[in-house]
Amino acid sequence: MKRTIWTVACCLLTMLASAQVTPKWAEKAKKAVFSIVTYDKDNQMKGTGNGFYIDAQGTALSDYTLFEGAERAVIINSEGKQSEVTRIAGANSMYDIVKFMTPIDKKQITLNLASQPAKVGETVYLLPYSTQKATTCQTGKVTAVDSIGNNSFYYTLEMKTGEKTVSCPIMNANGEVLGLIQKNASDESTESYAIGAGYGASLSVSALSMNDVALNSIGIKKALPDNEEQAFVFLHMSSGQMNEEDYLELIQDFMIQFPNSYDGYLQRALYFIENKKADRYAQADEDLKKAIEISNKKAEVKHHVAKAIYAYRLSVPENETPFESWTYERALNLIREAIQEDEQALYLQMEGDILFANKNYAEAFNSFDKVNKTPMAGPATFYSAAKAKQMTEGSDINEVIALMDSAIVRLSKPYLTEAAAYFYERATLKADAKKYREAVLDYNQFEEIVGSNATAAFYFEREQVEMQCRMYQQALNDINKAAELAPDNVDIWLEKGAVHLRVNQLDEALSAFQKVVSLDNQSAPGYRLLGYAQALKKMNKEACANFDKAKSLGDTLVDKLIEKYCK
């Protein structure tokens, strides 16, 4: 009996000795562990917990549950010093882990990630948050190691842990961090779990993280992706989802993180320009200059800057004075410098666009013509050339139509909605060239593409061309459709009456003109044409009364009708 009691006592002493130890590295390592307080949107305390630093850049880990729904968080280190959590750098709700950033302290102690995962049976140490000088680590054994991919691990431990130890680090004998303790199902359980610190360190923000539910459930600002290209996409996607202050701060983060990238300066300038921040135009101009200065791709950036200035000038209303530094001339000089450094079709197209906007149509055509001799040639580039040629004084309309032919032949079949504009433009040109039947064919193709989206104005326009080539039935169909779509449009009803007169449908004409004067009792042409329809139907009394009404409204064409029918 005595021997049994002695054996039990020895075992208890051994367990106590192993459960309360102070490894040599613990005194220093404890300074990497801190307490966290999170706050909700009303700045009320949401919760408290633990975390620890994993690098000298202020990167730390804790549990996601503590941060979910938080609008801000404060850490308190072992010396009682407080710091704000500035950025969330990654989160995973399933494994209940979050990675975040705090201001950098050069003296800050950090924990080194274990180079190798723990092995089953290995002794591990729980390093608690402590403000006391003496640090006592709780020990336990690893009972299972599960791989969760990407060289990351999940540990099962023979160790009793509680609420106060959640997210405290689990260390190996060398003082390297293996993982962080997760919340246990029961405070009485002798089995605990830890998510690998390496997994937490691998968490990141990507270009598509704006749609990440876990990240969006935390109100604290997000860090940028480590990769510059992804960071720029993230920056671009964030522009419409953040308030001005937060977005400009994100741009500043980008500039700090990628000091040799012109994208931050360009993006900030574009934000001010596109959002009409007139009081920030001077800063935007400096940003545009800085973007060119720091870039090692001068031609590319000059193209971007020229495009920004060009787009700005197009957006300025005629009654508004534009920012004095942003002129078409400056944009043109920049794009021509870019062309000299690297003659790309894209830059030539921009040159043409700027020249066209500045009404230098002949020069614009020359630029577009150069583009059309490159692999970049396509429907849009030939369309640009056609418009420039059309606007050039003394140009031949047949040359313009030929350019539109080149644009249309490059359209893919079946035609998409975007193709409709090309056929409409060519139809208008052919009508101007008196090629009426060819114009109707293009109008028909336009209608086929847009379907039910064709407007009253379209049917009105096609009807007038159809009348020119004596396609009377088609013209009647179109003007009736126009009247159906715009039943209160006086001009359409006037045209409808005129078409009925043209084909000797007097009753229909009479009805159309009566509709005109009912819609507008001050329409002089309406009364004149109504009177003319009545005169053709031998209704001279009524006709003459309407002629007199038209004359009283200032109609100058009615006198001959009065002379013929009312004398």
Q: Widest sheet: strand order?
A: 5-4-1-2-3-7-6
Nearest-integer average pLDDT: 92
- What is the strand tally? 13
Structural class computed from helices and strand pairing: alpha+beta
Report the C-alpha radius of gyration, rounded. 39 Å
In terms of quaternary structure, the protein is single chain
Proportion of residues in extended strands: 5-15%
Helical residue percent band? 40-55%
Task: Note down, in words, how this protein is organized.
Helices cover 50% and strands 13% of the residues. By secondary structure, the chain is α+β, with helices and mostly antiparallel strands. β9 and β10 (153-158) form a beta hairpin. α12 (345-357) runs antiparallel to α13 (361-371), α19 (472-485) packs antiparallel against α20 and α22 (524-536) packs antiparallel against α23.
Please describe the topology of this protein.
Layout lengths: L1 H18 L6 H4 L3 E7 L5 E9 L5 E4 L1 H4 L4 E5 L5 E3 L2 E6 L4 E5 L21 E4 L11 E10 L5 E6 L10 E3 L5 E5 L9 E6 H6 L10 H4 L11 H11 L5 H14 L5 H12 L6 H14 L3 H18 L12 H14 L3 H13 L3 H11 L7 H13 L5 H13 L10 H13 L3 H15 L5 H13 L3 H14 L4 H13 L3 H14 L4 H13 L3 H13 L6 H7 L2
Helix pairs in contact: 6-7, 7-8, 8-9, 8-10, 9-10, 10-11, 10-12, 11-12, 12-13, 13-14, 14-15, 15-16, 16-17, 17-18, 18-19, 19-20, 20-21, 20-22, 21-22, 22-23, 23-24
